[in-house]
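Form P-L/3: holo structure prediction, ligand iron/sulfur cluster.
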Amino acid sequence: MANLYIHFPFCKQACHYCNFHFSTKKIDSGGMLDLINKELKIRASEVKAPLESIYFGGGTPSMIEPKSIKSFINSIKVQFQFIPEIEVTLEANPDDINEDYLLNLRSAGINRLSLGIQSFFDEDLKLMNRAHDQKQALESINIVRKYFNNYSIDLIYGIPYTTLKDWKKNLNIALDFNPPHISAYVLTVEKKTALDFLVKEKKIALLDEELVKQQYDLLIKKLEQKGYINYEFSSFGKPNYFSVNNLNYWNNKPYLGLGPSSHSFDGVSIRSWNISNNHQYKKGIESGKLLIEYEELSKKDRYNEYLMTSLRKSEGVSLSYVEESFGSTYVSYLEEQVSRHLHKRNLFWDGNFLKISNKAKFLTDGIAADLFIV
Ligand code: SF4
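OUTPUT (holo model):
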């Protein structure tokens, strides 16, 4: 199965923590989507299997007119085979949500929404420079629930000046809506963002790492109590509501990324990425000369990536997969490397699968890196 990712590179304003590619210039959303559609036609032959998911991310794709989304989805469906139950997700910000918009999105073919709530508190939203406020956050979920049974609420933990109690309140508000899916991301300071500048200037003080860990631990505990499955480090779904797009990404399935800055993967060893510049992207498409860079992953890279992505998933690392795909030398190396973490109960064997314990989950990326072949 294959997946399609569309990066829409515009936002109303810049969130202080964000290092994704986007522009806040006044836009012609249909014009950008037309360019992306041209890229789609040029690269269609890269998709070798029926589509299982389409994901509109960004940027802020909820700034796109539903009629443009509809004709884009129609164009995809004419050109590709897809499974009947294909998941079609759009990332939306609360300030773009209203009843008409959602009705039109639904008839355009969107069947899943990922709602960027981030926090239910105005002080957090202001600190992060989000475009919406608490009232819009609450209202948007009430409207979304009327039109979509498959939706996700995105939250951020580790926000400066928040306590464990604040985070608990945020989680309780989210859980009161009983959403089928929640994604929760830690606030990280990315280079050259406004947050990076504010921290360096000592205008914002970051939370202590131990408190961030406590917030993550609370997240797992509360959501598991409410019947969510933590199927991937940041992703929690009720049964039958795991995101196909997320899972396929973490399972290293092939995906074609369209639009400025989007990444693609052939499902084996080739990664590629589009230029992160809207103007040059446009020039490239118009001249028929796409500005894409490629890299080929070595066997060692693929092994390291497999460890990283698998440890993040509840399924864990499959020893038989390592044996089949990389050979017995890699199995012996892995068995040697894990002993320290088995001893500390950070990792455990569940039959043929190596998994991370709840107490060590917050440290997943660091533990995976310890097991890498360098
Ligand atoms: S809306 Fe999303 S993509 Fe745009 S600046 Fe904020 S976090 Fe980044």
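COMMENT: The chain has 14 helices and 15 strands.
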